[in-house]
Write a structure and sequence with these properties.
Helix 1 packs antiparallel against helix 2 (38-49) and helix 2 (38-49) crosses helix 4. Helix content is 74%, strand content 0%. By secondary structure, it is mostly helical. The protein is globular and about 50 Å long. The termini are close together. It has six helices and no strands.
Length: 166
């Protein structure tokens, strides 16, 4: 049996869990008034194991679900998470440290895109005091979250060679 569809199903299940945890649990824990973005971390890390189309689909649909649940304009986070998934596909490599280091940069990219596109959509201003706090704190929180999640995702999503034993 081809392991790719199973990996995509696992990734979808993990993303559903991440969406629930993000909206129900993590939004209650704030550091300097902001929270880590578990969904962004999952999109970035999943791009390492999924093929490009599946990673882009996971990024788009998870962003769209957050758009539907939140007050942001429809499609804002879907666009941002798709761009982040594309950048993650291009930037993260086979080395675990390279994938983890990319989380900080790609989280910063996500925050900047949300600020800029949100400002263009009339959702605030780039001159708000919260912008700098979010741009500094959220990528650092995401990096810590990624360091904790990476070993778990590696066990769940990494392809195995069980067929070689048969």
């Amino acid at each position: 049996m081809n392991p790719r569809p199973l990996m995509v199903l696992r990734a979808i299940g993990l993303m559903i869990i991440a969406l629930v945890l993000q909206t129900v649990v993590l939004n209650r824990f704030q550091v300097f008034g902001v929270t880590a973005s578990l969904v962004v971390v999952m999109v970035i890390l999943m791009a390492r194991w999924l093929d490009a189309r599946a990673a882009l689909l996971v990024g788009f649909t998870s962003g769209l679900v957050l758009d539907l649940l939140g007050a942001s304009p429809l499609g804002l986070r879907a666009l941002v998470y798709t761009v982040v998934a594309f950048a993650a596909i291009r930037l993260t490599g086979d080395a675990p440290l390279r994938s983890l280091a990319g989380v900080w940069a790609l989280s910063l990219l996500a925050e900047v895109l949300i600020f800029v596109l949100g400002t263009l959509a009339g959702q605030g201003s780039l001159l708000q005091a919260e912008v700098l706090t979010r741009a500094v704190v959220v990528p650092l929180l995401n990096l810590g979250l990624a360091a904790m999640l990476y070993p778990l995702l590696a066990k769940i999503l990494a392809p195995t060679d069980r067929g070689a034993l048969v």
